[in-house]
Design brief:
The chain has seven helices and two strands. The chain is mainly alpha-helical. It has a two-stranded antiparallel sheet. Strand 1 and strand 2 form a beta hairpin. The protein is globular. The protein starts with a strand and ends in an 11-residue tail after the last helix.
């Protein structure tokens, strides 16, 4: 039994979705919001502790942005399966509105592809794969000291 409920920005999914529906839903959801990676980054920052709510928000916003996500996508692409790569490419190639001024159009599209991939994995209930891929990103880009405690690059 599967049920998908849509209400403004909220999507509730009861059970894994077939690949086609899951892919379209992931692309639609991730085209306008970096929700998937944002939640994972917030979780890691909360685990580290010591941040007020305002500091947590500022750190998250500094770490979840198109240029950083584009670098993460570049890091992960050699490790993706053929199906995951296809989802990434489809998300990346989705027509979108103009990129924000804080990034290039290529970075924006790569970030959208990464979000589509994480959304697709989530909808397929592949939580272990999400954790595996995110751990690589976190270690390479955040935990390795490439960002200072205030979120800026060294």
């Amino acid at each position: 039994f599967r049920r998908v409920l849509f209400r403004s920005d909220l999507v509730l999914v009861n059970g894994p979705l077939p690949d086609d529906l899951g892919l379209h839903l992931a692309i639609d959801a991730c085209d306008s919001s970096p929700a998937g990676v944002l939640l994972l980054v917030r979780r890691e920052l909360c685990r580290a502790g010591g941040l007020t709510a305002g500091e947590l928000h500022r750190q998250t916003i500094k770490l979840v942005n198109a240029p950083t996500q584009a670098k993460a996508a570049q890091l992960l692409r050699p490790m993706l399966s053929a199906g995951e790569e296809a989802v990434f490419r489809r998300g990346r190639n989705t027509h979108s509105h103009a990129a924000p001024h804080s990034c290039t159009e290529g970075e924006y599209h790569a970030a959208t592809g990464l979000e589509a991939l994480f959304g697709w994995l989530y909808l397929r209930e592949e939580k272990e794969r999400i954790e595996e891929l995110f751990a690589l990103i976190w270690e390479e880009q955040y935990a390795s000291g490439r960002h200072r405690s205030d979120g800026s690059a060294p």
